[in-house]
Design goal:
The structure is a single chain. The chain is an alpha/beta fold. It has 16 helices and 28 strands. Strands 2-1-10-9-11-12-13 form a seven-stranded mixed β-sheet, with helices on both faces. It has a six-stranded mixed β-sheet with strand order 6-5-3-4-7-8, with helices on both faces. Strands 16, 17, 18, 19, 20 and 21 form a six-stranded antiparallel β-sheet that branches. The longest helix is centred in the first third of the chain and has 18 residues. The chain starts with 7 loop residues before the first helix and ends in a 6-residue tail after the last strand.
Length: about 525
Amino acid sequence: MESNRRTVAELVAARWDDHRPGLWFEERTLTHHQVAAAAAARAALLADLLPPGAHIGVLLDNTPEYPLWLSAAALARAAVAGINPTRRGPELARDILHTECRVLVTEPAQLPLLEDLELPGVRLLVTGTEEYEALLAPYADARPDASAAVPGDRLLLYFTSGSTGAPKAAICTQGRLAAAGRSLADQFGVRTDDVHYICMPMFHGNAVIADWAPALAAGAGVALRRRFSASGFLADVRRYRATYFTYVGRAVQYLLATPERDDDRDNPLRMGFGTEAGAVDAAAFERRFGVRLVEGYGSSEGGAAVQWSPGTPSGAVGRAGSGLVVLDPESRKECPAALFDAAGRLLNGDEAIGELVNQGPNPFEGYWRNPEAEGERRRDGWYWTGDLFCRDSDGYLYFAGRTDDRLRVDSENLAAAMIENILARYEGAGSVAVYAVPDPVTGDQVMAAIAGSFDPEGFAGFLAAQPDLGTKMAPRFVRVVDRMPVTATNKIHRALLRREGFRCTDPVWWRPPGEPTYRKLTVPNQ
């Protein structure tokens, strides 16, 4: 039974002799059998190049070579380090060398990134070249052998966003990835005839853990998009008959920003699964495309997860499972239940907002060669997520942002994520980010970045009409941007926004204390 399989290698090998179409990319279609055979050939090559347990870097767009090398690494008991192609120079070299890659799989389009980099001991394999095909040719008859793989074999080293320092390489074993894939396949009822559309970058855990792995576990197909394209999304979905995709909130906003058409709902998608879409955008997406977005929460490192279930209140992520608590990071005591008024306004954010902590068993497997970062996650024998939440009296959890996003205004804790959900209703806002800037006396002031159109009087009137906007929540500063800055994984680059504050080249509006509307801010020596 496939549900009893414990390694990714076994899931790959199980597709041998399965001649259904299984992988789509542009004009190419491979059967599940062809995918398993190609993975076996690469695994055999790896076995001749490297010892078991070695690391290979993969610096590719979402081409078929990416899942083939993930599958090959599982069969060969090697580990893949997903290399971020938006990194440059010494930072890019640092990622490759830090993860001790002996082989780097790349493609001609990425070679300019590697020019002038010192990468001692790293062998390049350049896909799509005659030399690459000649290297693989002797292994064309290899068959997938999963007998040696064990659940504890390291399979992934995937980097966190690195918004607060050098990216950390989180470890994921074959056992954890296989279990995650099986769990999501069961949760969403993934069938063998489903097609998972992978448009998020495969160097990140979102695409591999939440999209590729459940398809592999269920025997479903995958369709790849080299890089995310809002304009190409619906055409791809129809072309490949895709039924499922993963997202981050910014990608949903890009999709909603495309011109509406009468046939937008004519698509085969059943659902999307991801994070940070926000209630307003999720509702708009379902109205327009007829597709439900399921918001989930899972720390990149695997230390905590929250699942949505029927009956989850609007704005909540899901019910707290066993071991999940919201703690005051200073006192280590559990925060009191969140209290909301009839309008949905959080009344006791100062007490109720804390860090989500998993006090029970968790699958966090550490960071590669980074004991300091590991120590930040593992404290008191618990897993500290670094994310802010509050929990209501029924046990439902509400995301409040990263610990770096904490705002403290007039001695009151505010949730950036909750303010963003309110500001997202503003008609001119294509996207919104809320963050703290220093108050000249003490604590923070609220600043918002809005991508879209902005009318200072209209915005002030909008704020006054929002019943769930607390008295401390209204932004003191509003930065109006043409396009929201994002990271390589299409998440809003909040660290950059915080760093620049109101001393930036974009127009900034501010509301002086006690005044009803906003005025243009002029910063000396800007």
